[in-house]
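Input structure tokens:
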């Protein structure tokens, strides 16, 4: 009985794993993306641009961008503050804060949207008071923004916490010993050290904010032209059997996802290149 050549066996195993990975990517990533763009152009570029220029579609696009433009800076500020506190200081309740940051990862987005309805809806805890003061949160833009902030706020913090913990506090302590105050230390030492992780977290946060469906679906009311984001508008068009228009709007989300993927790759390359240069 002949011996198995370990080199040949490793090569065969590697080739098999690569082939399986490529097949998986082809079936579950490439083909769906190609299908989206193919269906979107089912009636040619004329039908595509007609669907995109529809007033309801433009409203959904604007609302999606507006929601992301509000939610991402809020989450960026929270992520920096929370990760700075967790990584650089010791305080009571630190483990509780870390657990709360992870809460949106463990709670269904639909449940989080329902929580806002129970709080701010007409029959909710704060509903009567809001009605008396003519303030509408649920089934309006504020509710959509709040729900989006909730489901996306862990992304920046979760990128920065391990990065700051790995960096330690030596550089900040050195800056303090040289006379720098807290803000000077942050702007000149902490922020430059976390810039790549911060950009990466913001990128992921923005991608989730624009693609969020579950929580937004509950609090928006799905009012066409007013409270529909792009994912909700795609669902409505598809349910109306307006397939080309649905895929046209979906193609914009797919394009934004591809841009996010490319930007993610660029950031990873730049960060790795910088680390390599520093080690050299």
């Amino acid at each position: 009985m002949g011996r198995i050549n370990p080199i040949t066996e490793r090569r065969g195993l590697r080739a098999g794993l690569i082939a399986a990975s490529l097949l998986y990517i082809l079936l579950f990533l490439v083909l769906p993306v190609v299908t989206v763009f193919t269906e979107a152009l089912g009636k040619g570029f004329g039908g595509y641009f007609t669907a995109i220029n529809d007033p309801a579609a433009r409203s959904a696009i604007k609302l999606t961008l507006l929601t992301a433009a509000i939610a991402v800076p809020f989450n960026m500020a929270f992520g920096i503050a929370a990760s700075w506190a967790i990584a650089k200081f010791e305080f009571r309740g630190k483990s509780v804060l870390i657990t709360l940051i992870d809460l949106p990862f463990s709670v269904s987005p639909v449940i989080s949207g329902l929580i806002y309805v129970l709080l701010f809806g007409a029959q909710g805890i704060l509903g009567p008071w809001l009605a008396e003061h003519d303030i509408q949160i649920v089934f309006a833009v504020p509710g959509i923004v709040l729900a989006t902030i909730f489901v996306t706020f862990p992304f920046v913090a979760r990128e920065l916490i391990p990065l700051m913990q790995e960096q330690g506090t030596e550089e900040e302590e050195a800056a303090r010993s040289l006379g720098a105050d807290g803000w000077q230390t942050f702007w000149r030492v902490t922020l430059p050290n976390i810039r790549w992780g911060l950009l990466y977290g913001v990128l992921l946060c923005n991608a989730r904010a624009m693609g969020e469906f579950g929580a937004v679906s509950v609090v928006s009311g799905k009012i066409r032209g007013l409270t529909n984001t792009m994912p909700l508008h795609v669902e409505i068009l598809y349910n109306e059997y307006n397939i080309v228009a649905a895929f046209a709007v979906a193609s914009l989300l797919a394009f934004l996802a591809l841009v996010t993927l490319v930007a993610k790759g660029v950031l990873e390359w730049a960060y790795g290149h910088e680390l390599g240069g520093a080690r050299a």
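Residues 243-279 form the longest helix (37 residues). Residues 138 and 219 are 5 Å apart (CA to CA).
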